[in-house]
Amino acid sequence: MSDDLTRMTAAEIAALIAGGEVAAVEVAQAHLDRIAAVDQSVHAFLHVDTAGALDAAKAVDAARAAGTVLGPLAGVPLAMKDVVVTKDLPTTAGSKILEGWHPPYDATITRRIKDAGIVMLGKTNMDEFAMGSSTENSAYGPTHNPWDLSRIPGGSSGGSSAAVAAYEAPLAIGTDTGGSIRQPAAVTGIVGHKPTYGAVSRYGLVAFSSSLDQAGPFGRTVLDAALLHEVMAGHDPCDSTSIDAPIAPVVAAAREGAELSSLAGVRVGVVRELGGEGYQAGVVASFEAAVETLRGLGAEIVEVSCPNFDYALAAYYLIAPSECSSNLARFDGVRYGLRVGDDGANSLEDVMSITREAGFGAEVKRRIIIGTYALSSGYYDAYYGQAQKVRTLIARDFTAAFARADVLVSPTSPFVAFGIGERIDDPMAMYVNDLCTLPASLAGTPAISVPCGLADGLPVGLQIMAPAMADDRCYRVAAAFEAATEHVLASIPELS
Amino acid sequence: MPDATEPSPGPRVDEPVGRLSRADVAHLARLARLAVTDDELDIFAGQLDVILGAVARVGEVASDDIPPTSHAVPMTNVYRVDEVVPSLPREAVLACAPAVEDEKFRVPRILAEDA
Amino acid sequence: MNYADVIARYEPVIGLETHVELSTASKMFCGCSTEFGAEPNTHTCAVCLGLPGALPVANETAIESTIRIGLALNCSIAAWCRFARKNYFYPDMPKNFQTSQYDEPLCVEGYLDVEVEGNTVRVGIERVHLEEDTGKNTHVGTSGRIHGADYSLVDYNRAGIPLVEIVTKPVPGTGALAPEVAKAYVTELRNILRTLGVSDVRMEQGSLRCDVNTSLNLPGAEWGTRTETKNVNSLRSVERAVRSEILRQAEVLDGGGRVTQETRHFQETTGDTRRGRSKEEATDYRYFPEPDLVPIAPDPDWVESLRVALPELPAARRVRLRDEMGVSAEDLVQMSNAGVVDLVGITTFAGAPVGEARNWWLGYLAQKANERGVEPPDLPITPEQVARVIELVSSGSLSVALARQAVDGVLETGSDVDEVVAERGLKVVSDTGALEQAADGAIAANPDIAAKVRGGKLSAVGALVGAVMKATRGQADAAAVKQILLDRLGVGS
After folding, report:
1. Are the C-beta atoms of residues C138 and C129 closer than 8 Å to each other?
2. Which of A217, A443, C80, C167 could disulfide-pair with A228, CB 3.0 to 4.6 Å?
């Protein structure tokens, strides 16, 4: 039974619990057992909250016994990216500088998860402060891709994607600044969605790049991701950039997409600039097959051109480092976290500098330095200012493209999962992992990654992009696609 | 676009070398309160120069008549009502701190001894 | 060095940057209380401590107050502007950036007219912008100052309190009156802020803080290099700081030296300024638009409604004092010179007779200010409180002597008038029996004086009145006591 429970979707588990056929505690225990069995090799989790998970599950069982109507995901286990603040539970954002920090408050999405009766199993590994595409930049060691333990699970939300792919949790939360949900979803063969910027509260996400960061769901199915999306999303008065409007009806869209099995009347735009030279051949082949599948479902395929997408990488690697150089200034060893070098002789500036040097990894330091440079007087206009103009141009490209198509598609990443250690010393080789995901990040528009086959035995993701606030379109098309294709995870090798 | 499946190229010969010198990196690191080591300076100076060469492309497109985008979703006037809500308990606040004295956060001397 | 001689040879240019803590209930970006004097670090939360993940949401009242200040200073209100991050490391700043405004202030291009010795000087207002205050460092060590401290302690209660910065344009052409113009500007600004009700404007508590820029140039030459003097914490210090900086710079220039662009610190004890951080060492603040806050785009109708609802401002109030309350031109000048004209005005318009208000502010309160070495507006008592004291006197609840005790109590404790009156039991003793008993006691204790009075030397009764007042702890009406004494000594009329 235990093994069966971990193989189920979130929707199935929720139905069993709601129907009294299985206790939430059993479900939690099954997943904790699975974590105990496989996480030594996967290393998806930085912290497993066994007691907290079982308590939360017991509360759901008690509520059901008392006749309370349960929420749609009550009792379903979830893995939380360690960038999301959790009261009294360690929150490190994958960094040494926050080692031992037990936040005195909950992120808004943490509270929503708890209020929904979702059972948080623990905190997942990530690239330090969400900077990276491989989870190798974690201060606590890399996470391994359950498809091939010698490969990366994507990043920065690699712990969350690996946990879901390895059946350690049916659901996970990630954050996406330049692709950190979509790319890990793609390379682990699961579904991941980056919502419209402002659809999900950022209150309590350890900030990387404030104007880009957005939390979103991971699941093994489009419907599961949609169910979690609806729990997470919604206006939050604690986040000034939170959109005060009704949540896009993503669950209904996912159900409708799967049931109709037709995309008749839907115009799908293939973005010319997101493909071709530099993309791995197997990825291109899978993507082309996916486009044919969409056509077969009745979608009208059009080619669109977004010429300014070619500048997305340059703009992103100015905006994100600039904002991070400011966001990460608070880690100075005064109010919380690590302090190094306080020997009574060193000045405060020395202690701050030694602390930050010891507490941050190489990629974080690189980005802080780039960002410090890009914001300096005399360079601001040429770098940060220009990057913000590119952002405008990319948004205009999207607007033009969405005049011709209801959704846009591309590969999620140019590559399948690469080997751990292969690119770690070459920042630019790492950055190009985000080529396809960056435009939607810069424009604040929603995008989903859904598995679309294998290349060399490793998963490939299809990215489906929609206009702002039309997250439901992503889910509808993804669900129709999912229903029409073989489930990729079915061929994941068994972990020993 | 370079063929990204290949290892990334080193500093390209057609780009001006030394846009970001070792001394520049040292200065920026000090501004950012990072006590970087000499070895790191060597590595970072080369890497950052390559990155800057790549990101400088933003200068190719955008002209004066294009407004910058600071916020992806256009919104204005988001405010809260001026009402007091309870603060965090002081124990919880100070429990996070590396050093505390007299219910305050203790920090090393702000000015260096020779200042 | 002789000031008149310096002014004969150099022309000063001054400029002022004033920081005003708004008297909102909660902080700029979170719901923590702004109450002054709380236990350290009890008014802090995830937002104002800059904990990872916390996000700011702007206080609507603070935005409104800033716009009202801008309107009162004849500024244009921006149709659209943003907050910006000012990045630098300092332990009193929890995020190591200050949320402020940079090239898009909320209010720009205004002016404030001030009167100095009968002349009206128009001080241009460059900008009024909104930012957040920092926490407070205490330096531990033998010196108690930042220099030579062993370590420091930080209290973040003040961090995040809304702070409005009001920056003047450079003010040339004031000549010898530069120090007085600076003081008159801050005085008038303070009066306006108090009238708007947007701040406590208490310089001694730091809710109004002033930086004074000063430069000197030869007549006809370009403006000189300016210094910025900080730590100017009273109205009197504003004047002293400008004067001493003019003298210091003249000495430097006379000696063939160059004035260095630097921050200087005013020394309250010596009245001179001391060198602080040099501007050449100043850090690059790397301003950029705050991504966590959305732009401010005040609705023009809202701005107009705020403009219409502005209260009567001090300048108009002075006109009304003259025209409606019949205050003479000489009296206005006298009150103006004493820096109390607006205090008298507010006291009057709070219900007190203008003569009483004038007497209190030019008399007892001026004396108290003098004893404390501050200007009357710096006294920790409000005109409304003075009006209440006057009301209690005219209703007979307090004698003048008791009223002074009430004022003393307010000045000492910061409590309200009625609290002081209640706590100290200040009340005119009108119980005739008690007074007669006290009078008999005084007569018995001073037979010689009593005899003199009986003998017709009526003026000697004063000593007996004093004795009775002492016995009743000042709570009797002196005139009534005198009458009782004269009656009992058989010389009553």
Report:
1. no
2. A217
